[in-house]
Write a structure and sequence with these properties.
Blueprint (H helix, E strand, L loop, with lengths): L3 E8 L2 E8 L1 H18 L12 H7 L1 H23 L9 E6 L6 E8 L23 H14 L2 E4 L9 E10 L2 E2 L3 E6 L7 H7 L8 E7 L6 E16 L5 H8 L4 H35 L6 H21 L11 H29 L5 H15 L3 H10 L3 H17 L7
Antiparallel strand pairs: 1-2, 2-4, 3-4, 5-10, 6-7, 6-8, 6-10, 9-10
Helix pairs in contact: 1-2, 1-3, 4-7, 6-7, 7-9, 8-9, 9-12, 10-11
Length: 417
């Protein structure tokens, strides 16, 4: 017997179904709810567990209805999903629940559906192939950075120069007056240090006052800030000799050449990761271009919101007060939406590749992936499995592993290529 009274497409990848639960199923579930409540509720004049069912129905009808709806709606939604062979992307939006004792239960479910994918060319891709062997100068630069990290920092009486560390007093100036003086320490010329500050400090001596301006924002929201900065202390690095002793100190290497080889391997591994990233992005871009699809708007919206949360977290980690900052979240959402669309589009296509190639994740592989995730979080594989299961993300994790397998296959790097 059909449980779907009607179904209509309400937009790209979106369907609304009217579902009916037979009266007999409603009556049976209501009787079950009443029996359960008779054992739980306390009504004066009756011992617990001895309350007559008719009295339960009279005293707590709302609770009976709530339990019937909570139990039947998910169950019959699954039946409707199977009946119409839907491929939903997420839980449905349930509305219009009609419940009346002795009558069929009806509800409306609106759901995002997976668009059909007809795979075309998934073989020939034009992929970048950057070199992974680091040049000698890159290795030497990395060794120089190691020397700098191991340097002794000693007070300097010379004027400030690039690479020095400076303890500063900084005061922001405005038409309203001077702000509160703050102390900070910077490495002059470092990437995270304002360029305007670096320029202002060049050649300055301890106690010498310098001022600089910094332009922030764009368009009508742009503003110029003024600062006064005074070096309180300057320190310069005394670099260790680049020899076997240094190699032994930084990593217990037996020789400088062994250290140099280790640095070279680390740089090569980083370049290989970057090569893989570039090739993945190029492949996905070409795959998306060859397979235009209507995208489920709700899924794109959720993906956009996820990207916005990540952006907000990154701002908070940088010390930005999200409550006080005047952030145009609507504008940021608009900027992030194309990235969200690309992610959703790529997932849909990779899922289609998984199905076309018959890819699977063996239980041993799954456990290994859970273990790797657990180690990165400081938890056991079992704890990670339980956490993902409780949050309903266990199958999502398996799906992501399958997509990674599909991507590897398309890159020509896996057994299913």
């Amino acid at each position: 017997m059909s449980v779907v009274l009607s179904m209509e497409e309400t937009g790209p990848c979106r369907a609304r179904l009217e579902v009916e639960v037979p009266a007999a199923a409603v009556e049976a579930e209501a009787a079950r709810a009443v029996r359960d409540l008779a054992r739980e509720v306390r009504i004066p004049g009756f011992r617990r567990g001895k309350v007559p069912p008719a009295l339960v129905e009279k005293q707590v009808p709302e609770e009976v209805e709530r339990r019937v709806v909570e139990r039947l709606v998910p169950r019959y939604w699954k039946l409707a999903e199977a009946e119409r062979q839907l491929l939903p992307m997420g839980a449905p939006e349930v509305a219009g629940v009609e419940y009346k004792a002795g009558a069929p239960l009806r509800f409306t479910a609106t759901v995002e559906t997976r668009p059909p994918v007809e795979l075309r060319n998934i073989v020939d891709f034009d992929l970048p192939d950057p070199a992974v062997e680091p040049p000698a100068e890159e290795v030497e630069a990395a060794l120089a950075e190691l020397r700098r990290q191991a340097a002794d920092w000693v007070p300097s009486e010379k004027p400030a120069s690039l690479g020095d560390r400076a303890r500063l007093q900084v005061v922001e100036l405005s038409e309203a007056g001077e702000g509160e003086a703050q102390e900070t320490e910077v490495e002059i010329g470092a990437a995270r240090v304002w360029e305007e500050l670096t320029v202002a400090l060049a050649g300055a001596e301890v106690g010498q006052v310098r001022e600089f301006e910094r332009r922030e924002g764009e368009g009508e929201e742009a503003r110029t800030r003024r600062f006064r900065v005074t070096p309180l202390e300057l320190r310069s690095p005394v670099l260790p000799e680049l020899d076997d002793g240094f190699a032994a100190k930084v990593g217990k290497f037996e020789s400088l050449e062994e250290l140099r080889g280790s640095v070279r391997e680390r740089l090569r591994a980083a370049r290989e990761r970057e090569r893989r990233r570039q090739r993945e992005q190029a492949l996905l871009g070409q795959l998306i271009e060859r397979h235009p699809l209507p995208l489920p708007e709700g899924v794109v919206r959720e993906e956009t919101e996820g990207l916005m949360r990540e952006y907000a977290e990154s701002l908070a980690m940088r010390g930005i007060d999200l409550q006080r900052s005047e952030i145009d979240w609507q504008g940021i959402g608009g900027q992030l939406k194309p990235q969200a669309e690309r992610r959703v589009h790529a997932r849909l296509l990779l899922d289609a590749v998984v199905e076309a190639k018959g890819l699977e994740v063996a239980e041993e592989e799954f456990e290994e992936a859970l273990g790797a995730l657990g180690r990165s979080q400081g938890h056991s594989a079992m704890a990670v499995r339980q956490s993902l299961d409780r949050s309903g993300q266990l199958q999502d994790f398996r799906a992501q592993l399958l997509r990674e397998k599909a991507l590897t296959a398309l890159l020509g790097e896996g057994p299913a290529a």
